Amino acid sequence: MSISVIKRSLLSLGILATTVSLAACGSKSSNQGSTKLASNQKIGLSTTAEITSLDLSKIYDTTSFIQIDQTFEGLYRYDANGNVEPALATKTKISKDGKTYTINIRHNAKWSNGDPVTAKDFVYSWQRAVNPKTASQYTYLFDNVKNADAIVNGKLSPNKLGVKANGKYQLKVQLARPTTYFKMVMARETLYPLDQKVVEKYGKKYGTSSKYTVYNGPFKNVGWTGINDSWKLVKNNQYWDKKAVKLSQINYTVAKSPSTAYNLFQSGKLDLISLVGEQAKQLGKSKDAVKRPLAATEYLQYNQRKGVFKNRNLRLAFSLALNRSQLVNKVMQNGSIVSKGFVPTDFAKNPKTGEDFAKEAYVPGTVDHDATKAKQYYKKALSQLGKKNLTIKLLSADDDQTKDVIEFIQGQLQETLPGLKVESSSIPFASMLAKASAGNFEVNFTGWSADFADPISFLSQFTSNNPENSGKWSSQAFDQAIKDSNNKDANNATKRWQDLINAEKILATDQGITPIYQANGIDLVNPKLKGVVHDRINGHYDYRTAYLTK
Description:
Elements: E1 2-3, E2 7-8, E3 42-47, H1 62-71, E4 76-78, E5 84-86, E6 89-94, E7 100-105, H2 119-130, H3 148-152, E8 163-165, E9 170-174, H4 182-186, H5 196-202, E10 219-222, E11 230-235, E12 249-254, H6 258-266, E13 272-275, H7 277-283, E14 289-292, E15 296-302, H8 312-320, H9 324-332, E16 337-338, H10 357-361, H11 371-385, E17 390-397, H12 400-416, E18 420-427, H13 429-437, E19 443-449, H14 456-459, H15 476-486, H16 493-510, E20 513-518, E21 521-525, E22 529-530, E23 533-534, E24 541-542, E25 547-548
Parallel strand pairs: 3-12, 17-18, 17-19
Antiparallel strand pairs: 1-2, 4-5, 6-7, 7-9, 8-9, 10-11, 11-12, 13-21, 14-21, 15-19, 15-20, 16-20, 22-25, 23-24
Helix pairs in contact: 8-11, 15-16
């Protein structure tokens, strides 16, 4: 997912997944004390970036995903241990060949306008997502659904997708191949339902503001105009499980500066903030601090459509010029760790040996700081490019933590590589993503968090035709390894694992992207705030069961 700031995205499963434990909101000490509900169940939260959309077929950033998590609901959701549990699904039957899912849907679910939530709403949503006209960046989530690839590539009509409604409350899904992690996929936001009547009523306006959206989750979004930096989530009284929802209101504000967020927390206007830099160093051991491991990788992507970054030696020079340990330990100081590759550490384990994926797939000399070799690669690159020096532009988001990282990267590259000038362009997150997606960049600092706990959730985005592959890096060998993992080796855990290991090694060796660090964090939490679930795989927060104590 287009993480993080990250392009972000979720999980814990399957055949390759590692078992993960998710931290509930609050430290051990903050969970002690009163359990009686406070009379005022309103909390304040912040984000570092604006909402880009409330259209679940089109969103691609963490802020928007977290809003969708609170205001919509799908067939499944993730529990506190990262496993899936039924949400709107009441019963699921899987055929012996693993290719047909028959799912019964609860009868008492409604949209916030009173319309019933039916199987047809899922069929409409899924068909809309894979329709090329929608331009969803998450069509890869449907890769294993029958006919999805052909539809995405404009070769079949969306109504040929392998999903249909059997009556009002039963959904039948036909897969092209067995997919052991498919329930995890169905818990993703892009596979949530949509009220067709409302989407068609508002047309292009749908999801562009609170009033042009209808909700079936525990909360409704109120007050977002499409451009403002504050809004509210209010309890949705049409939600089928409204008795489980204790919070009456969540007040959101965009706070790009950590100091602004901390001041708002100190004044009681925010109940949870993320700590970075000096804040993390000074407050990280507070009794109200909570560590947040995250399966997310921040990286540099290079525009390889044309220009100097088609040169592999230049990409390797950039990677080896960076002292990642210094970045995470001296600059960030929030628990983030150095990347071994694109797939994070402690994310997935070999189904046969238990070896960590990141360790097994690590390629020496691709992400290690080595100034001498960096200079050698750079010299070769300049010779091959017929240049004596270079000026490149580095695109990024404009939140404070990202600015600190960019300043570090800029400094290290210029200090290590003679004759290199790095010009940085820090712009609002939504604008940065739009420019990157359109290919309007040379180098882009961005990130990705998991959609579900399987390496394919990371690696598939760099296949040649994936819309998330904004830099257009392309490798036939990489594409084939991913294809094999999804097809001929799909039911062979050992062979599938090796396919994915090979794919990671190809990506690293060619330096299709340059992984920088694995994004971990620390939150400061109001000790009276309980019941928040944080997913360490994708970094999303779930406030459905959150509440304030006295």
